[in-house]
Write a structure and sequence with these properties.
The chain has 1439 residues and is of the alpha+beta class.
Length: 1439
Amino acid sequence: MIRVDGTTKNTLEYEIVQVVDTGPILRDMAFSMDHEHLYIMSEKQLTRVPVESCSQYKTCSECLGSGDPHCGWCVLHNTCTRKERCERSSEPRRFASEMKQCVRLTVHPNNISVSQYNVLLVLETYNVPELSAGVNCTFEDLSEMDGLVVGSQIQCISPAAKEVPQIITENGDHHIVQLQLKSKETGMTFASTSFVFYNCSVHNSCLSCVESPYRCHWCKYRHVCTHDPSSCSFQEGRVKLPEDCPQLLQAEKILVPVEVIKPITLKAKNLPQPQSGQRGYECILNIQGNEQRVPALRFNSSSVQCQNTSYSYEGMEINSLPVELTVVWNGNFNIDNPAQNKVHLYKCGAMRDSCGLCLKADPDFECGWCEGQNQCTLKQHCPAQDSQWLELSSTKGKCTNPKITDINPVTGPREGGTKVTIRGENLGLEFRDIASHVKVAGVECKPLVEGYIPAEQIVCEMGEAKPSQHAGFVEICVAECKPEFMARSSQLYYFMTLTLSDLKPKRGPVSGGTQVTITGNNLNAGSNVIVTFGRQPCLFFRRSTKHIVCNTTASDEGFEKVKVSVRVDKAKIHQELQYEYVEDPTILRIEPEWSIFSGNTPIAVWGTHLDLIQNPQIRAKHGGKEHVNNCEVQNSTEMTCQAPALAVDPSHQSELAERPEEFGFILDNVQSLLILNKTNFTYYPNPIFEVFNPSGILELKPGSPIILKGKNLIPPVAGGNAKLNYTVLVGEKPCVVTVSDVQLLCESPNLIGRHKVMARVGGMEFSPGMVYISPDSPLSLPAIVSIAVAGGLLIIFIVAVLIAYKRKSRESDLTLKRLQMQMDNLESRVALECKEAFAELQTDIHELTSDLDGAGIPFLDYRTYTMRVLFPGIEDHPVLRDLEVPGYRQERVEKGLKLFAQLINNKVFLLSFIRTLESQRSFSMRDRGNVASLIMTVLQSKLEYATDVLKQLLADLIDKNLESKNHPKLLLRRTESVAEKMLTNWFTFLLYKFLKECAGEPLFSLFCAIKQQMEKGPIDSITGEARYSLSEDKLIRQQIDYKTLVLSCVNPDNVNSSEIPVKILNCDTITQVKEKILDAIFKNVPCSHRPKAADMDLEWRQASGARMILQDEDITTKIENDWKRLNTLAHYQVPDGSVVALVSKQVTAYNAVNNSTVSRTSASKYENMIRYTGSPDSLRSRTPMITPDLESGVKMWHLVKNHEHGDQKEGDRGSKMVSEIYLTRLLATKGTLQKFVDDLFETIFSTAHRGSALPLAIKYMFDFLDEQADKHNIHDPHVRHTWKSNCLPLRFWVNMIKNPQFVFDIHKNSITDACLSVVAQTFMDSCSTSEHRLGKDSPSNKLLYAKDIPSYKNWVERYYSDIAKMPAISDQDMNAYLAEQSRMHMNEFNTMSALSEIYSYVGKYSEEILGALDQDDQAGKQKLAYKLEQVITLMSIDS
């Protein structure tokens, strides 16, 4: 299509459109009726073509620059289109038809700092239509806001704080975004310009700051770069120009000898004077990766000195080491070093082992040769009295004892001209020292200035030798020929006669490039070889005694024979040798003219003179990359080549054939064949094979063919007779191949078994997998016989060896046998232990799950539950009782407390009261918890108000935490404030319903499962250790033999009803038996309603009718070496199936010890030590001390003796040796309890429950924490996660898991408590975001659940994200819910008693509280201090 705006002479085309498939277009064309399409015909085709395709142009300049007369730019729709298709195109500036009408945009300012927000930006627009519908300003995906149109200007506001892009140091100091204008009428962006956000604080040096193209200023005293100069501490501390920056000036080379104490003085400018509280100057030298800090002194603003210090570096192979020097002040404030001054540390002695090398060093080093020590040193290190010190500047600055270590070459022609290189030591310091005193084998040798290296090397040119001279030494004098300045070589130099005998090949192409070898004798003599063929040089390549090898150059004399001449130095070797230049080779044809991308297919080549070429190669170049392959010459007219590969990117291997950009031959130097013009050489895609199947193994019967599937197996060459040469190997054997386009058929060779299949073609190898050829028939008879014979022989041989071995072992030492027995014993115990653990694991899970069904859950009522959490360990708290006041004060006190209640219900007072208490030094942690719990009991009936106060306190706590620069993750970690304990209590109140309906069931199941599992094995009644445990500390690490007995127990409530079977262990103490019987009889009775074991006696009813009271201690108790063992059923020899009864305690029994002993050492004493009644703190020391009996010094034990006592028997110590093997029991116990732990965690960490929604309190509190994080710009997901974990799982759930007795009416013994602690620790680890790096030394409880914790962590993360996605709870809904909760538990606590308890703190700190109220404005307005004084007056005793 032709441009209409082209010049009259030259027509310009603007678009080419492909309209018909093949052939020319006919002249007849016609428009459609609407003139929007053109009908075009060819011989076989009619096509309808649109007259324009404006929509292909995406910008105004592309659209109007295309030259298409139909197209224009529809401004507000941001599209290229025909005028009639653009809405309201007749209105001014809505449709652009010329380039100069395109919209342009400038913005002022066009850059702002990332710390500037909501800045007014003015956009100047050109060619914009009227924007009455309005316009939006968009900063890419950061923000969008309304723009204000004022004439031709549009005013926009830059993004707000949270939308400004983060600029990270790696990305430079600025971030470019497109500021786009979007029409509200069309919703399209119609103009854009670049806008820059820059970040000065990325710069950490003054020069980079002030040289930045943005408005950055350097604060000299704060060492920061800022866009706001007013933030600098002093007016004079602001720097805007590079010349005002503190910086070091260019210094001359700073030289510091190693191990010498020396100051370093540096010139500088604008050095700041450190202000009060700032540290002074230091120099930092980075020596071989080690940082050395040296104090420095600032003399004035232009000079600083690193103080007297010595420096050193490793190794003697560096004589001068440039070291980075940095000057800093105030610890890490760098002074710019634009000249990059370095300190050069040097060692005189390094790599200067001789006097010459020493004096040759840089004079500035001031090194000299210390003759007494024979080393290069500084003058002060050379002892003056017994040695002479040579330096370059002194008159005696000449080194004695020159030495020659090497000469090269050691042979040369008599004619001379050979350049001899003499290497050695102390060979003079100036050329004139050696200019005239060098002789080689008695012949003058003239030194050359250009080859002289002072002290180390002389290069001299040989003169001519007389016929009588054959060999000799090299002799030199340095400066003067005195004995101490003379040297003689140990090597001899020989004069040689050189001869030539032949050359090969004797002819080559006229273009050159032939490698010619000339043979002869002594050809490696001398220093320089020149070979010429006629007038053309032959380029020297290498030589040896018998050969010189050189490469011919192109002949300019055409085809002829030329003379060969060889010169070595000044000797011309006379020998008639001739070389013939002949016609260059040519290539006539190649076949086939195709290959595959990987090359290496055979190509036959025909041509002329091919045999002249020594190393012919074939080349192909594609995409700028060249590949070469080798050819082999058959004769002068034929050679065979392997096709070169084609450089096709494997990731973009096309399915189409490719032509190389260049294809030709490298034949020595023949240029004309590098690119063959007349060839159509084509490359086809490589064959591709498929693997046999996903497993990679193909199973076959013998004789079946192997089929390899693929594609491109036959190249699609025109003419269709292309064949690739495939080799398929099965194992090592090739097979006969039949090829089709999509498969290879391979007749499998006569093999059986498994073999790898390998297909090769061209330069490729591919293995589709393995074949397994299964044998057809069973073994033949001879094979069976031979195997049987071999087997028989092998058995005889083994028997013989065994007999010999047995004899040998009999003779061996008896001690070895004893050791062996001990080891076997150990091994069998380990094996038995592991086997038992495995068997138990399989059986226990089933038993536990079936046992736990059916029993009711003994939930505590709301009041008991809240009391146990709010005031742990206090049974009868005042808030549960009526207020006790003497009658005469009752009225005043009640009036005072009512007035005080009004104050507590005043938010200003309550917040001031709590803050004042918390600021008192004597207000302890326990007091904080107590006040929080008392306030919550008072506000139980006003939970909306309590929640409001709690939110305010938490917000204050977060502010305080962030201000004190604590890590944000520490928030809510420990209970150190009233707010944190109030939060725990708040959840305690609001999650009771959730505990009863959902979480209580799996928690109770876990408790029962642990208790039942522990009681299945022995539990030591004194230490609390058990065979089954999750806690390593509470694990019995010994083998304890025990049996399970089933006793029939008479029902104490109903003697006539059937006896109850109870499972007991024969190693249980009598108290343990009583407890198990009570558990069985009162299975569904809450713990507090059952009789106590201490109040009952166990009576054994024997078959003979005799009855016997069994006790933990009586006259039959065994005592051994001061150890008294508690009685067990095994001690009394109670058999399986015995009948027992629990009867009320009797005063005496025939087998009791005297009463005084019973009262002191009755086993219940130990039980009470273990039994837990108080607060969780009392559990810290739950293993009872084994205190010896005061009078007799007897110590009690049950299953294991306490390890502190050192009188264990030898056998016991042996058992300790393998105590670690019993840790496998932890795994078995964990496996048994796994389902219960999983159930509990899953219930706690899921948002949907059976018939119960997520408690509103959780969602509400989590949203509150998210709001606080947003408010403080905390976007780190780990911090948010940790806040939530510290707030709910850590504050509430861990407490419930460790103390199920807060929720249920149960008794928890010490082993169950230890196991629950492990579960609680796992729960805490699951809520943590930090990585748990475990090693073999990690605590066992962490290792035990190491594999489970990652999946638990996923549950927690999913739980938190699910909660975050839930719709927010409106304050209205939350308040309704809180009001409902308040109403349900309105009268649980005595408010007056609680107020009286809180008031005790007012009495203690009345002055401080009144003082705080006086200072608070709002409190002043409400006269709160006056009201409190009234309360104090009413409550005071003496009023």
